[in-house]
Design a protein that fits this description.
alpha/beta, Endonuclease III, domain 1, Nucleotidyltransferase, domain 5, 2 domains, globular
Length: 343
């Protein structure tokens, strides 16, 4: 804050520097601090968003909201910190979150297993959202109260957006109906390819006829091996792992918890693109309960858009976003191929 650097207030500066480690860390960023409605907020150099400077007594509560709630997904330290930093600021946040996650009994109970050896990774360019999708079945899992025991997962290869559809069976007919009613009707048809395994779900006559009718190129992998589709396999593992954390007490309602699990995944920054799937799809960050509870608001007044202005600005923003993500995907694919092919 400006008054702390004023010579007249030099004694205040001395007190700050002589205070706790947290206070000294905050004082070092005083140029970013301001008071709003008697609350201390932090404004970064890169954007105009206000972030509440959280006192120690409230930090555990905020971490619990960002980590434990269903749309928090019991994610790791990095993802939890990224969510918190959208609305909050305090020194050594990552250390506090790391301690919390290490002490989370649910996370300790469901540690991910070490991945098995994978087949050589094939690089593949993807040009725009939903130009290429990856589909797979997960199951059978515990039968829910509604009779569901399978999940059809559909992943956009570009944005990493995931749809996960519960089903009572995994037949070719069910696959076709779910894709038409819940995926193609929302996002349109894939412009390039639909990647799948060589299971009967995707190679049966019903699916073959569906691809012919829709004019979609169905690409069947050379080998029937789930790890041939590294991206969709990792996505499936994330969904199952998070679901297990929330249905440990009641396996009959996993399909009811699924939408909030998907919410958490879509709001998490993807390692390959460097962005969240929600931002890749919409051009903005997802509004989570944490934002409604703690967001101090923006410094700049909200812009009043006409429909035309909004579409123009959104298009420009998405073009920049896609260009950045494309570069990230190419670098990630090269790194993944080098890593996987060595194993």
């Amino acid at each position: 804050m400006a008054f702390l650097s004023d010579p007249v207030n030099h004694p205040v500066s001395e007190l700050a520097l002589a205070g706790s480690h947290d206070l000294r860390s905050l004082y070092a960023t005083k140029q970013h601090l301001t008071l709003v409605d008697d609350l201390l907020v932090y404004v970064s150099e890169t954007d105009t968003a206000r972030r509440w400077v959280v006192p120690k007594t409230q930090r555990g509560i905020m971490i619990a909201h960002a980590h434990d709630e269903p749309c928090g997904g019991h994610r790791g330290v990095k993802a939890t910190c990224e969510t918190l930093r959208q609305v909050a600021h305090w020194p050594h946040m990552e250390q506090d979150v790391a301690r919390y996650v290490r002490g989370c009994l649910v996370c300790c109970q469901f540690q991910p297993t070490k991945p098995l050896h994978r087949a050589p990774l094939q690089r593949k360019g993807v040009s725009y959202p939903w130009s290429s999708i990856q589909i797979d079945w997960v199951g059978p899992v515990a039968r829910s109260a509604r009779g569901n025991k399978y999940l059809l997962t559909v992943t956009c290869a570009f944005t990493k957006w995931v749809e996960c559809l519960p089903a009572t069976n995994d037949t070719a007919e069910t696959t076709a109906v779910l894709l038409l009613n819940h995926v193609f009707s929302r996002f349109g048809l894939p412009g390039e390819t639909v990647d799948s395994d060589r299971g009967t779900h995707f190679s049966a006559a019903v699916m073959t006829e569906l691809w012919k009718l829709l004019g979609v190129k169905a690409k069947l992998h050379i080998a029937y091996h789930p790890r041939s589709s590294g991206g969709v396999e990792r996505s499936n593992q994330s969904i199952v792992r998070i679901l297990r954390k929330y249905v440990a007490a009641n396996h009959k309602d996993w399909d009811l918890k699924l939408p909030l699990v998907l919410m958490a995944i879509r709001a998490t920054r993807n390692r390959s693109t460097g962005m969240t799937p929600f931002e890749m799809m919409t051009g903005r960050q997802m509004t989570l309960p944490l934002h409604l509870l703690y967001q101090p608001g923006d410094v700049a007044a909200a812009t009043a858009y006409t429909a035309h202005q909004y579409v123009t600005d959104l298009r420009n923003h998405l073009q920049t976003t896609f260009a950045y993500a494309q570069g990230q995907l190419e670098r990630s694919a090269e790194g993944d191929k080098t890593y996987y092919d060595k194993k």
